[in-house]
Structures are given as C-alpha cells and as structure tokens.
Amino acid sequence: MQAKHPSTRSYKTISPLLGENVYIDSSSVIVGDIQIGEDSSIWPLVAARGDVNIIRIGKRTNVQDGTVLHVTRKTPNNPEGHPLIIGDDVTIGHKAMLHGCQLGNRILVGMGTIIMDGAKVEDDVIIGAGTLVPPNKVLQSGWLYFGNPMKKARELNDAEIQFLAKSAENYVLLKDEYLAES
C-alpha cells in the first residue's frame, strides 16, 4: 500500500491506504479508514468519508466525478453498522451516491444512481442511470436493474457481461495516462 496522497486525510489517526498505481484527482477528498486497491481511480470532486465505519474499494475500480461514498455508524441496534464495500472491476458513474452498501465484482453503476444502506449488489450487474436502490435490497448477478425505486429489468447478455470488465480496463488505461503526466 502507498503512503499519503495530498487528497487524503486522517480521521482519529486512521489514514487511507492506497494500493499500487492508484490515481486520485487533487479535487477529491478521501478521509479516514479507506483502502483503495491497486490500479483503481478516484476522479474529480469525489467525497469519501470513512469516519464512522470503513470503506473498502477493490482493484481496477473507478469512482467517477462528483460521487459520494459514505457509511453508517455502529449502534446497539446495528452493531456492525453499514460499511461500504466495493469489489474489483467496478465502474461507478458520475454523481452516484453509495451509502453503507456492498457491491461485488464487475458492476456498472449508472450516473446519478443512489444505493442505500444494507443493499447488496452481486457480481456482473448493470444498474441504469438514476436508479434508486432502497435499503437492504439484493440485486442478483447477471441482471440489469433500473428505475426509482429499482426494478429487475432483464438478464444481461454475454456482450454486456464482457463489457463490465472492459469498462474497468478502459479506466485503468485512462488513469495510467493521468499518472504519467503527474
């Protein structure tokens, strides 16, 4: 894991940990108990607060402009709270809000999507732009979801499933270009 980055800040002496070759735009704010896996990217104006619980972001995941990442604190009624866990090869579109949810691997989160506390998104899922995923919902692997509130629309075809990893790969290449210029 890499050391401190200008966009990262500690909270109660806990600082974010960055994997190798992570790109974080200087306009983003990454605070507290956050780990970001290798080859991932955090784009302009992302706010991520791992203050009252943890945030874990996997490898080759990209968090696009204006996204908010947050968590829910631990309480007597909810001893684990709701951490934010994001898997590998995930593409999170512009202005998404992910709050105390869990995302598997190879997921596309559309622009402006809101995913709420306790929701779980399995592997290989596309969530359409502007979708609201209510608390504690489970989105099954291999499906397209969209709407407010979200609805299970249809199964993904092979090309769409292959695109999920390709989307993440494209952002790895783009962040490499940005890192080469810094």
From TrEMBL:
Stored Gene3D superfamilies: Hexapeptide repeat proteins (2.160.10.10)
A UniProt-annotated Pfam family: Hexapep_2
CDD domains tied to this protein: LbH_gamma_CA_like
Name of the molecule in the record: Gamma carbonic anhydrase family protein
Organism of origin: Thalassotalea mangrovi
